[in-house]
Amino acid sequence: MAVQGYHGKFLTMKAAKYLGPGAVMLAAVLWAIDGLLRQNLSDVPAFQIILLEHAIGAVVFLPVLIRGWKEVTAMRERAWISVAWVSVLGGIVGTVAYTKALSYVDFIDLSVVVLIQKLQPLFAITLAAIILKEKLTKRFLIMASVALLGGYLVTFGANSIGEMSEKTMVASLLAFVAAFAWGSSTVLGKHALKRLSFFTLTALRLWVTAIVAGTVFLSLRNRSDLFALSSNQWITILIIVFSTGSVALFIYYFGLKKVPAGHSAIYELFWPFTAVIFDWVLKGSILQPMQILGAMLLLAISITLPREPQTDNS
Questions:
Q1: How many helices, marked H, and strands, marked E, lie in the chain?
Q2: Which domain holds residue 288?
Q3: Structure pTM?
């Protein structure tokens, strides 16, 4: 009986090691679905979408914020800076830049936009070492390099990125801004989680983003009617809030609490990986052999990485 008890405890501990990575990868899959949903809102200004989805999410998570208000009032200046960065850069700037980038490629050619998101781990890993003092082992850096190669191959296969049109260049610049905003938000979000539970951070992030987005929206001279949406558009926004938006954010912070920021950045590569799979299944875009190789590399690293020592100092 004692042996069985020890064995069961060992399996539970082993499963728990994959819980954080699994949550981050699940959030990444939901973000890939999010891209498909937002194509139904192509006629709605990006800022209007951001405001509505965060405002609805903020109301839904209001009880959570009230419950964790003591954590909020106990926050120091550095924690507030982290929350503000994640809310504004991650919630607004990154999303607007990414949405605009997609509009430049007419929601069809996602390759360049998705490719540049591979820079997110580079931003996240570098900032994690600087801000969070996460020690980067040589083994981890090798695995990160392999994951980036896998992400590149999944997106581009054996194709060249040398030929870019003017619109593609603009889309690339916007995607670069989004990559920096989201990559840095991974690190600053991890820093905020040292002071807040993932419940409270999710609610606070939604509220701060909604307030800032609302203030900017009301200051616009040529703003559209906030609530002038079709029934299908409202349904899409509500689906986003309760699946790929607020709920995905909650799942992500749950996972981020349990893994180092540098590791999380690698798991987030499941977003472009899943996006390419969806493109294959839904649009019949056949994966090239090099893309399949890249997918295998990503999967292999994602399975191996949880065994890497957790060097996070939180």
A1: 17, 0
A2: 30-307
A3: 0.78
